[in-house]
């Protein structure tokens, strides 16, 4: 089972062989640090939105309701879907979803198991940077706990909160500037360290970490105390003989990366972006931002 810390998996109902999901695009007040909130966009009341988990061959119908004051759409990033289901109304026959309306995206999962994402593709510079995004995981029906004992999804993002002087943290509710060229808060699954949820493992377990990045910045993610193998890129598996052993991996904008490691060095180990500004909360000195910890139980 894939776990997205702080973010639930999206439930579904199944009828006549089709899995039915519901996503609601709307306004969200998201707490990124204790007492620090941002006015964002999200799905089902959170940003990033719920993680969607399916299997190859599934038929899905994802009903997207629009509770925003402007049209929106959803693009299934990396999925091979019919042209009118791809969610880019400026180019494709896929429609805009107007305020107060919904659209049913329905398609068969034809991709192999892998890590993908979903996000808005209408007024993209605004809606994506306001938080309309989530994870989309195609599970491997042949994989068991003998292969992977822990499977975590981590969505990386960055926001420019207005009204905070650089170098100052003050509790309050802040608006996002989606058009800013630089960010001052860097998140994993919608939270900044030390508010991020630690990733718990046991010694001897095989662990998979799935990274996703819809935002406009690149993030070199570094893991302390361990080496890992890069096992997939953009939802496509890398043959074992071609997998590289690393301790830092670049998660570029628009990409997903899967890594796997053996938990063989007990302790509390940082996992963080290696850009110094990205491990800070509004340029304050204590460790923060895009950081979490892998902790042995």
TrEMBL record:
Annotated signal sequence range: none
Pfam families: Cu-oxidase_2, Cu-oxidase_3
Highest taxon of source: Bacteria
Protein name, UniProt field: Copper oxidase
PANTHER family from the UniProt entry: FI03373P-RELATED (PTHR11709:SF394), MULTI-COPPER OXIDASE (PTHR11709)
Residue span, Plastocyanin-like domain: 39-142, 182-285
Gene3D superfamilies for the chain: Cupredoxins - blue copper proteins
UniProt keywords, alphabetically: Copper, Metal-binding, Oxidoreductase
């Amino acid at each position: 089972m894939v776990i997205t810390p702080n973010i639930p998996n999206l439930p579904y109902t199944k009828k006549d062989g089709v899995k039915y999901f519901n996503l609601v695009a709307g306004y969200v007040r998201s707490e990124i640090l204790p007492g620090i909130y941002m006015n964002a966009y999200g799905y089902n009341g959170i940003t990033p939105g719920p993680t969607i988990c399916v299997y190859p061959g599934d038929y899905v119908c994802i009903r997207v309701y629009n509770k925003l004051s402007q049209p929106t759409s959803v693009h299934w990033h990396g999925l091979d879907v019919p042209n009118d289901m791809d969610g880019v109304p400026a180019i494709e026959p896929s429609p805009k979803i107007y305020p107060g309306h919904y659209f049913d995206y329905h398609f068969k999962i034809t991709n192999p198991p892998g890590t993908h994402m979903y996000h808005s593709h209408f007024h993209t510079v605004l809606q994506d940077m306001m938080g309309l995004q989530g994870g989309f995981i195609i599970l491997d029906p042949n994989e068991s706990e003998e292969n992977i004992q822990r499977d975590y999804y981590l969505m990386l993002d960055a926001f420019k909160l207005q009204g905070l002087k650089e170098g100052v943290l003050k509790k309050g509710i802040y608006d996002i500037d989606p058009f800013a060229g630089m960010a001052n808060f860097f998140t994993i699954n919608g939270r900044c360290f030390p508010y991020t949820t630690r990733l718990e493992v046991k010694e001897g377990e095989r662990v998979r970490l799935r990274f996703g990045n819809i935002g406009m910045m690149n993030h070199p993610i570094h893991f302390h105390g361990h080496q890992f193998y890069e096992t997939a890129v953009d939802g496509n598996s890398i043959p074992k003989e071609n997998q590289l052993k690393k301790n830092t991996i670049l998660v570029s904008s628009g990409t997903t990366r899967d890594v796997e490691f053996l938990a063989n060095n007990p302790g509390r180990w940082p996992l963080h972006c290696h850009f110094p500004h990205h491990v800070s909360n509004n340029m304050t000195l204590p460790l923060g931002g895009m950081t979490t910890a892998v902790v042995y139980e």
